UniProtKB/TrEMBL annotation:
InterPro entries: AAA+_ATPase, ABC_transporter-like_ATP-bd, ABC_transporter-like_CS, Metal_Ion_Import_ABC, P-loop_NTPase. This is Metal ABC transporter ATP-binding protein. It comes from Oceanidesulfovibrio marinus. PANTHER family: IRON TRANSPORT SYSTEM ATP-BINDING PROTEIN HI_0361-RELATED, METAL TRANSPORT SYSTEM ATP-BINDING PROTEIN TM_0124-RELATED. Residues 8-240 form the ABC transporter domain. SUPFAM superfamilies: P-loop containing nucleoside triphosphate hydrolases. The lineage of its organism: Bacteria, Pseudomonadati, Thermodesulfobacteriota, Desulfovibrionia, Desulfovibrionales. Keywords: ATP-binding, Nucleotide-binding, Transport. SMART domains: AAA. Pfam families: ABC_tran (PF00005).
Length: 261
């Protein structure tokens, strides 16, 4: 599906839960073909930012467009990979069946998946290196494997924009690297990926751009422009030594960046 415009445009977005404002006046444009990390302290609104783009939470004010279309009219252009904790892993369903769910929005209700759908699912499972597990029940997988299965579902959907909520949470270093490889492969295939991420020590290495959010958008741009010591101290209100691949040391609040938004 082709469309015009930047991958995501957010215009004066404000979101509240009851009387508490979680996001305030966020304006941001994400160009196509980027791997973008959304960083910020616990409770700063990172996951809410993703969910508001998807329409999972109601916006008080503001507009969101995806590839030049209003978000509400962009069905099929964007896919979502939730946090692992939001999924019932005991549900009796296989890896292949989860991946096929990505095709349901493109299959008329009166017919079964066809050869094209099966080929696309095969390609998605191959991309995330889960082809050998297609008949395995999802509850029997490791955390990293589960995460990759839901990435396969998003890829099978055929969406051009993928939003991922903490895909690296709770996985070991080897699995984290495998997931990162999948993200890079998807970007090289022309996808735009926006990833909620809490580990500032790897943010500069992993992402093309960073969006620093704590209720409002403090900065958006290349990692070296966002990971500035004075800005980090302002947002995290503490100090931690963080070493980036750029060879610089930055100080931030370790406790604030170690959990979930």
């Amino acid at each position: 599906m082709s469309a015009e415009g930047p991958a995501i445009e957010v215009d004066h977005l404000t979101v509240s839960y009851g009387t508490q404002t979680v996001l305030f006046d966020v304006t941001l444009t994400i160009e196509r073909g980027l791997l973008v990390g959304v960083i910020g302290p616990n409770g700063g609104g990172k996951s809410t930012f993703i969910k508001s783009i998807l329409g999972f939470v109601k916006r008080d004010v503001g507009a969101v467009s995806i590839l030049g279309r209003q978000a509400e009219k962009a069905k099929g252009l964007v896919a979502y990979v939730p946090q692992r904790g939001a999924v019932d892993w005991d549900f009796p369903i296989t890896v292949g069946q989860v991946a096929m769910m990505g095709r349901y929005g493109r299959i008329p209700w009166w017919r079964d998946p066809g050869p094209v759908d099966k080929r696309i699912v095969d390609e998605a499972l191959e991309m995330v290196r889960m082809s050998d597990f297609r008949d395995r029940q999802i509850g029997q997988l490791s955390g990293g494997q589960q995460q990759r299965v839901f990435m396969a579902r998003a890829l099978a959907q055929g969406a051009e924009v993928l939003l991922l909520d903490e895909p690296f949470a709770g996985v070991d270093a080897a699995t984290e690297r495998a997931i990162l490889d999948v993200l890079h492969t998807a970007r090289e295939a022309g996808k735009t990926l926006v990833v909620v991420h809490h580990d500032l020590a790897t943010a500069a290495e992993y992402f093309d751009r960073l969006a620093l959010i704590k209720k409002r958008l403090y900065a958006y741009g290349p990692p070296e422009a966002v990971l500035q010591e004075d800005l980090m101290a302002q947002v995290y209100e503490g100090r931690l030594q963080v070493f980036t691949r750029m060879g610089e040391s930055r100080k931030e609040d370790k406790e604030a960046c170690g959990g979930h938004a």
